[in-house]
Amino acid sequence: MALETKFKQTLKKIKLNKKEKILVALSGGKDSTVTAYLLKKFGYNIEGFHINLSMGDYSKKCLDAVEKLCKQLGIKLHTYNIKNEMGGSMCYIRTSIQTTHGKGLKNCAICGVIKKWVMNREARKLKVNKIATGHNLDDEVQTFLMNILKGSPKLSANSGAITQNVKNEKFITRIKPLFYIAEDDIRAYSKKMKLPVVYEKCPCAFDSYRIQIREFTNNLTTKEKENIMQNFDKLSDKIQKLKTSEELHYCEKCGEPSRNKICKMCQLVKKD
Ligand code: AMP
Ligand code: ZN
Fold first, then answer.
1. Of 170, 200, 222, 266, whose CB neighbour count within 10 A is largest?
2. What are the distances in angstroms from CA 211 to CA 139, 218, 230, 241, 267?
3. What are 175-195's pLDDT values in tens digits?
4. What is the whole-number distance in angstroms between the Cα of residue 264 and the centre of ligand 2?
5. Confidence at residue 230, expressed as pLDDT on a 0 to 100 scale
6. Whose alpha carbon is nearest atom 15 of ligand 1?
C-alpha cells in the first residue's frame, strides 16, 4: 500500500481533526520532515518546533534543514535553544548527568527524556492541541521488542499512534502519524520529494542495546514488522489496563506531569 494512503489511514484511526493545532517536532531528519510535509499536504493546521541541541556542525545542519522546510511549507517555526535555555549543549548536559549518575545511562535515553520534557512544556505554552513526532514502524518495533526483552511490557503502554489514558491537563497528547510506515519507505519518499533532510545520524546515537535490536529488526520484512505492531495493537487495550492504576501527578520540583513524585527530567538534572 502506498505511503500516503497508510498515512491517511493512521490519521483516520486516531481521529485527527483539521481544526486542531498540531505542533510537529522537527529534528531535521527524514521522519519528522515527511510527517510535517504530509500533514500540511492533507490540510492539517500545523506549526513546527525544533530543539537546537547545540551539537556543533550537526545541529547547524539540522536547524538549516528545518528552517528550509518550514519556509517551503509556509508554516511557523518555533525554536528552542538548549544552550540558551539550559546553560549548555546536549553533550555537556548529558556528560554531567553521566558523571553524576554513572555511565550506565545511555546517551539516547537521556536526550529522549530531556526532549520530551521540553516538548510538552513548550507545546503547552504555545497552546497547541497535539504534538506530532516522526516515530516510524521500525522505531516502534524496536521499542516494543526492547520492552518485552527487558521484561517490562507495561512500558509499551506509552506507545501507539496516539498516547492514551493520560488524563492530565498539563500533558499534551502525542501522535505518531508514521507509526505503521517502514523506515525504508520514508527514506525513499523523502528523496523522491527532494525534501530538505539531514540523512546523517546523530553523532551521539550509540545506544548499544537499540543498535543490537536494530540489527535484528533490519533483517525482518516490512510485513513481519507490520505483523509485530498489529499484534501490539491487539494487546494494546490489555496493556493499557495494566496502567490504569498509575495516576499522573505533578513533579514536586518542576510542576510538569509525572508518574512519580519527581519527574524523570528532574531526577536526571538535579537543580539543588
Ligand atoms: P529520536 O528520539 O531522535 O529518534 O526522535 C524521535 C522524534 O522526536 C523525531 O521524529 C522528531 O519528531 C522528534 N525530535 C527528535 N529530535 C528533535 C529535535 N532536536 N527537535 C524537535 N524534535 C525532535
Ligand atoms: Zn520535574
1. 266
2. 11, 10, 23, 30, 26
3. 999 999 999 999 999 999 999
4. 7
5. 87
6. 27
Compute φ and ψ for 23, nearest 5 degrees: -100, 115
CA-62 nearest atom, ligand 1: 19
- Residue 198 scores a pLDDT above 70: yes
End-to-end CA distance of the chain: 53
Residues in Cβ contact with 128 at an 8 Å cutoff, skipping those fewer than 6 apart? 21, 22, 23, 47, 172
**Ligand 1 atom 4, closest CA:** 135
User: 135 CB less than 6 Å from ligand 1?
Assistant: yes
Q: List all residues 6 or more positions away from 61 whose beta carbon is below 8 Å from its beta carbon.
A: 28, 198, 200
Task: Flag whether pLDDT at 246 surpasses 60.
Answer: no
| Maximum distance among all Cα pairs of the chain, rounded to whole angstroms | 53
Decide: 31 in ligand 1 pocket, CB within 6 A: yes
C-alpha cell at 77: 517555526
- Sign, CA torsion 50/51/57/60: positive
Name which residue sits closest to atom 16 of ligand 1, judged by CA: 27
Which residues on adjacent β-strands are paired with residue 258?
249
